[in-house]
């Protein structure tokens, strides 16, 4: 389904999971570890291409996006980051880290009613990650982490565009449940590496590192006095 | 569902039998699409049909893109293809389909075929591009204004000369705009020819004079809209035909004037 990236000397590690699964914490810790080990890394976040951002922001603020244009604008963002930030460092031999990847689109867009085969076709240019970690947590656990303190949920984040409920919190729950269902189907389809997101943070991180470690041989190393680049942005 | 809808469903979009029509005018740059669009619109409206006309050229996104390219933020070809697809989907959902639902005759200057040709000549996989646009409805008719490059060149010259984008200079390493134009438009024409068979385009000989091209177009369009209204007979319709040649000439004079100014400034310097 996705393109094989084996021809490239670099390695691609991605994290996936519903909001509140703890994936961002984990990839951040993995990133810091790789840096401390002296590897050259590149970090790419979902929805962060500067070129596409203005359109996406406008679409979200003014609620102009439909499921179809929501899907396409995120694919545009992903294409820009692939061409700019993912492929070149992979070719150069670096460790590329991505907080969310094509699977996020497969989960969210299909939860919004987009044709599952179509969205997979669109993303067929994406390179297959070396390891795609999926942080699996029960819905209640994720909701509890996110909704404690009643944060203000954004329109699209809560899936309000689907008209599932008038109440943003209820809508969010229903929407996340749909996405969770999609992720669970993708585990076998894409061979996602499942991590139990309810375990203590340090335990999860130890498991991640042991899975990543065998892939690090021959990766590009970073000169001691150079800091790494991390994209600004995200959602 | 309306039988014209594509194989990939558009989520949340009501598309039960749409009473409107979707008429597409396709053809290369400079072939005279906008003139014919204007004539067709006037004629259909004078027959009592509500017409919604739209185009895909010079979109707001393409406009931004040019600015970004100038400021050094060039888009890769895949990003560009997806950006255009987003723009198209937006117009489809916000303009074309609602107009068709309201019973308009939607007349569009270019459609997915141009977008696909554009991406394909820039090296994108044609199958991927085809699948990308599978949500687009099939038009009631695609009127393809067909012209050879030889006949195209004098028209382009008469309407202001070669343009950077129309000459494919963003991806070609052509020596001059002229070389780029020949190469790019030749490649685009090849794509149109390929799609003309596959999608059953109605070919219109665009090498004829404007009035005759319009006559041919009317004949085809009449068949499409005849179930909606009895259109004005062609002989009754006195087309406000032929774009005012004066405007073109004035523009040409301006170019000549500025050239003269430029030359004289050089002469003064030396």
Layout of helices and strands:
The complex is a heterodimer of chains A (235) and B (270).
Chain A: E1 11-16, H1 23-36, E2 41-45, H2 50-61, H3 67-92, E3 95-99, H4 102-111, H5 116-122, E4 131-136, H6 139-147, H7 168-190, E5 193-196, H8 201-212, E6 229-230
Parallel strand pairs in A: 1-3, 1-4, 2-3, 2-6, 4-5
Helix pairs in contact in A: 1-8, 2-3, 4-7
Chain B: E1 21-27, H1 33-46, E2 51-55, H2 60-70, H3 77-101, E3 105-109, H4 112-121, H5 126-132, E4 141-146, H6 149-158, H7 177-198, E5 202-205, H8 210-225, H9 245-269
Parallel strand pairs in B: 1-3, 1-4, 2-3, 4-5
Helix pairs in contact in B: 1-8, 3-4, 4-7
Model description:
The complex is a heterodimer of chains A (235) and B (270). Chain A is built from eight helices and six strands; from the N terminus they run E-H-E-H-H-E-H-H-E-H-H-E-H-E. In chain A, helix 2 packs antiparallel against helix 3. By secondary structure, chain B is of the alpha/beta class. Chain B is built from nine helices and five strands. About 7% of the residues of chain B have low confidence. In chain B, strands 2-3-1-4-5 form a five-stranded parallel sheet, sandwiched between helices. Classes of the chains: A alpha/beta (235), B alpha/beta (270). At the A-B interface, helix 2, helix 3 and helix 5 of A face helix 3 and helix 5 of B.
Keywords:
heterodimer; A: 235 residues; alpha/beta; six-stranded parallel β-sheet; 8 helices; B: 270 residues; five-stranded parallel β-sheet; 5 strands; globular
């Amino acid at each position: 389904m996705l393109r094989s990236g084996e021809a490239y000397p670099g390695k691609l590690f991605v994290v996936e999971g519903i909001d509140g699964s703890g994936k961002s914490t984990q990839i951040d810790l993995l990133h810091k570890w790789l840096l401390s080990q002296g590897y050259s890394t590149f970090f790419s976040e979902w929805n962060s291409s500067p070129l596409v951002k203005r359109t996406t922001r406008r679409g979200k603020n003014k609620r102009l996006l439909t499921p179809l244009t929501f899907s396409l604008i995120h694919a545009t963002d992903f294409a820009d980051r692939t061409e700019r930030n993912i492929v070149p460092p992979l070719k150069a031999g670096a460790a590329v880290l991505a907080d969310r990847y094509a699977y996020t689109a497969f989960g969210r867009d299909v939860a919004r009613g987009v044709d599952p085969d179509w969205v997979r076709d669109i993303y067929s240019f994406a390179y297959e990650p070396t390891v795609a970690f999926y942080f699996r947590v029960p819905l209640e656990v994720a909701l509890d982490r996110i909704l404690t303190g009643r944060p203000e949920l954004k329109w699209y984040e809560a899936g309000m565009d689907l008209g599932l409920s008038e109440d943003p919190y209820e809508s969010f729950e229903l929407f996340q449940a749909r996405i969770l269902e999609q992720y669970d189907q993708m585990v076998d389809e894409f061979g996602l590496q499942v991590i139990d997101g309810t375990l203590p943070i340090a335990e999860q991180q130890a498991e991640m590192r042991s899975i990543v470690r065998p892939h690090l041989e021959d990766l590009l190393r970073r000169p001691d006095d150079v800091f790494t680049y991390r994209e600004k942005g995200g959602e | 569902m309306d039988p014209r809808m594509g194989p990939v469903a558009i989520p949340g979009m009501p598309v039960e039998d749409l009473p409107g029509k979707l008429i597409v005018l396709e053809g290369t740059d400079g072939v005279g699409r906008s003139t014919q669009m204007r004539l067709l619109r006037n004629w259909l409206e004078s027959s009592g049909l509500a017409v919604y006309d739209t185009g895909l050229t010079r979109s707001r996104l393409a406009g931004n893109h040019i600015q970004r390219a100038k400021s050094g933020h060039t888009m890769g070809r895949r990003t560009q293809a997806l950006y255009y697809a987003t723009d198209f989907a937006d117009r489809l959902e916000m303009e074309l389909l609602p107009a068709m639902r309201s019973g308009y005759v939607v007349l569009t200057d270019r459609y997915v075929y141009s977008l696909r040709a554009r991406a394909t000549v820039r090296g994108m996989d044609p199958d991927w591009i085809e699948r990308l646009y599978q949500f687009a409805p099939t038009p009631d008719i695609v009127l393809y204004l067909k012209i050879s490059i030889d006949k195209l060149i004098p028209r382009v010259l008469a309407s202001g000369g070669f343009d950077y984008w129309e000459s494919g200079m963003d991806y070609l390493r052509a020596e001059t705009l002229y070389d780029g134009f020949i190469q790019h438009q030749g490649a685009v024409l090849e794509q149109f020819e390929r799609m003309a068979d596959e999608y059953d385009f109605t070919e219109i000989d665009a090498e004829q004079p404007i009035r005759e091209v319009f006559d041919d177009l009317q004949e085809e369009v009449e068949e499409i809209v005849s179930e909606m209204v009895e259109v004005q007979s062609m002989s009754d319709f006195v087309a406000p035909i032929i774009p005012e040649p004066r405007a073109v000439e004035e523009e040409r004079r301006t170019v000549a004037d500025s050239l003269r100014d430029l030359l004289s400034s050089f002469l003064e310097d030396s």
